[in-house]
């Protein structure tokens, strides 16, 4: 049994998925070894399972890829600022405070992105007036944008719940996409669970922020892929 396991791992690692890179170079794709390393992370994962790479495995793989190319990251298990999962210090001296997300939901869109839970917000179930709802929303997103530079998300595209992903996509959503919330009028917060449009990068509606009262969380839906940076895609054969 051990020999079979090793053979499967060797076969998977010897045939890593070939990346398709964004036409515009990004801070991640500028380091070819990072892309190669993360492709091997995907290969190693699927050497023993058809299950998609989950959030914890993604976080570990992302951290390992950064360390492999000499980028400094927060120590494993270190206390970080609220909302931030990882701070990366690249070779050129720049730092990025990142929130990491992943999804393997069925029927993922090729043109938009959905974040089921950006963050918890218990106050959603307590506030009753539109004015208070707006005040709390703007306070939360001011704090979020000050803490997080961007959201890095791994999306696994698959045809069914028991199918191995056909493709992984690594993309980045700037936290600045939420800046226009400050322009929303009080009337936009009238509903118990309002949805507010966000303008960004020349797009009138680049994303839609929803206050989910039933689960006390913030959902971000219909994030235009055109408003994001797609770093790379890995197709599995």
Sheet with most strands: strand arrangement: 1-11-7-6-4-3-2
Order of helices and strands: HEHHEEEEHEEEEEE
Residue runs with pLDDT of under 50 for 5 or more positions = none
- The total count of strands amounts to 11
What is the total domain count? 1
Mean pLDDT metric: 92
Radius of gyration: 19 Å
Structural class: alpha+beta
Oligomer: single chain
Helical coverage, percent range: 10-25%
Largest sheet: 7 strands, mixed
Q: Terminal Cα separation, in Å?
A: 25 Å
Query: Helical segment tally?
Result: 4
- In percent, how much strand structure appears in the residues? 25-35%
From the spread of the alpha carbons, the general shape counts as globular
Structure description:
This protein has 237 residues and is an alpha+beta fold. It has one domain (2-235). 25% of the residues lie in helices and 32% in strands. It has helices at residues 2-14, 32-45, 55-68, 130-147, and strands at 18-21, 72-73, 86-89, 95-103, 112-120, 150-157, 167-174, 195-200, 203-212, 217-224, 229-235. The strands form 2 sheets. It has a 7-stranded mixed beta sheet with strand order 1-11-7-6-4-3-2, with helices on one face. A hairpin with a 4-residue loop joins strand 9 and strand 10. The longest helix has 18 residues, at 130-147.
